Amino acid sequence: MTLIDLANPSKFLSLTARVLPWLAAVTAIVLAIGLYQSATAPDDYQQGATVKIMFVHVPNAWLSMLVWGVMSLAALGTLVWRHPLADVAAKAAAPIGAAFTFLALVTGSLWGRPMWGTYWEWDARLTSVLILFLMYLGLIALWRAVEDPSRAARAAAVLTLVGAINLPIIKFSVDWWNTLHQPASVMRLGGPTLDRAFLVPLLMMAAAFSLLFVTLLLAAMRNEILRRRLRSLQMMQARAFSSEVDAGSREKTVPFGAA
Amino acid sequence: MSLGPYTSFIVASYALVTAVVLILIIAIAIDYRSLRQRLRELDQSGITRRSGRSAADLR
């Protein structure tokens, strides 16, 4: 099966039916390993056991941006190539991305209270991630507000591409401004500064959450394709019903006209 | 395993992540079952796809 074959929603459904159980199983295994490594990781010499929050906070924060990146690629697919599954992917990814962003914000807050002495600070990193979360909600609201999926897809694609400007702002906010949030310690030019004892469980959890995202995205895309199939069949049913009603009313009026 | 003085923050973080991920999984699964059910109902009422296949057919 080539990539172009996946443009056919029916072939995509058939592929997801085969792939999803395996993907879910691999996700569960990697997540179990990641959780075990997180639980057995040593305490940090400054933060103590609180460092364990990092193993759930950082993967969610990475994915909050990655999902918007995926949606931006899908937006290009909708506007430039008019790929039939591009807006399906973007629409399916938005609630998952919103959930990851929400988790990044709340777990960050729960980590911040014992470490910084505050749940929230209006610094550049925290504020730009909050804006990302609000953009996810706005996008979900837009899809729900416009009934015709193709019209909603184009408007959402433009909004997604405009919102992508926020991604480099989030990434480099800790370098451009003086923030309470620490600078990058894994994805940086000089290599990770994190000790191996923390880096290995963190990367394992990041892999687990990435697999979870792919699994949930495929399942949500399958649902979206079925929803569109349902919509078109319901419209077909409504058209059949209205033509029956029209035919019925014409039959009633014919004798009068003939007379 | 002792988590020190900030146990409640650590446990709350993991519990929240677990809850949100479970909600996502359950919501997607319920949505899927509901869509399949409605497609089966349409199929039983005689509405079929242009290809002639069953509405609930995942192909």
Description:
The complex is a heterodimer of chains A (about 260) and B (about 60). By secondary structure, chain A is an all-alpha fold. Chain A has one domain. In chain A, about 80% of the residues lie in helices and about 0% in strands. In chain A, helix 3 packs across helix 5 and helix 4 runs antiparallel to helix 5. Chain B is an all-alpha fold and about 60 residues long. Chain B has a domain at about 5-40. Helices cover about 65% and strands about 0% of the residues of chain B. Chain B has 1 helix and no strands. Chain B is rod-shaped and about 65 Å long. Chain B starts with 6 loop residues before the first helix and ends in a 15-residue tail after the last helix. The mean pLDDT of chain B is about 85. Chains A and B meet through helix 1, helix 2, helix 3 and helix 7 of A and helix 1 of B.
Topology:
The complex is a heterodimer of chains A (259) and B (59).
Chain A: H1 9-40, H2 54-81, H3 86-116, H4 124-145, H5 149-163, H6 166-176, H7 196-258
Helix pairs in contact in A: 1-7, 2-3, 2-4, 2-5, 2-7, 3-4, 3-5, 3-7, 4-5, 4-6
Chain B: H1 7-44
What is this structure, in a nutshell?
The complex is a heterodimer of chains A (259) and B (59). Chain A is mostly helical and 259 residues long. Chain A contains seven helices and no strands.
